[in-house]
Amino acid sequence: MSRLTEYHFEEQWFVDAPPEDVFPIIRKIADYPGWWSEFLDAQKRNDIDGPGGIVAVHVKASLPYHMYFEIEAVREESPRIAEVRVRGDLIGSMKWTLRPEGSGTRLFFEETVTTGKVLLNLLAPLFKPFFAWNHEIMMKHGEAGLRRLLESRRVGRAETRAAPG
């Protein structure tokens, strides 16, 4: 395996919601298209909810290529850790670690993958920095989408509590 096709990313997000509210969203990959714009499609491949569950995804970020891969849940420790294995146009692992911080949650994302897409492997010697930039943009959109979703749920709960019964 060429180092040119290997990628390791570490990201941190902060959201103003407790891990108990964030974890169910992070672990439900089939729902990502509803809040993360780069996830164009996500289809469950089996009825397993948790480790062993597989979701096929179609992702497109800023650069003009599409990625297709399967994500299999391999480890969950609610509400702290969600870890998956990926195969297809990406091959490797991804892990979310959630930690309470004040009234919110600090999310740590770690991804170690190689590209399984022939075109990306051929272009890696010249375009690897652009692929990393593409990933960074995608992650920023994911963080913003998660914040919007959590805020809409918070507002919805507040409106429900305030509604005359």
Quick take:
A 7-stranded antiparallel β-sheet has the order 1-7-6-5-4-3-2, with helices on one face. Helix content is 33%, strand content 41%. It is α+β, with helices and mostly antiparallel strands and 165 residues long.
- Total helical segments: 2
Q: What do we call the CATH topology?
A: Alpha-D-Glucose-1,6-Bisphosphate, Chain A, domain 4
Strand order of the largest sheet: 1-7-6-5-4-3-2
Specify the structural class: alpha+beta
The major pleated sheet works out as: 7 strands, antiparallel
What is the number of domains? 1
Count of beta strands: 7
Report the radius of gyration as a whole number of Å. Answer: 17 Å
The overall average pLDDT, rounded, is 94
Name the CATH architecture: 2-Layer Sandwich
* Top-tier CATH class: Alpha Beta
Query: Which geometry do the CA atoms define?
Result: globular
CATH superfamily: START domain
Pattern of helices and strands? EHEEEEEEH
Distance between the termini: 63 Å
**Strand proportion:** 35-45%
Approximate helicity band:
25-40%
Low-pLDDT sequence parts: none
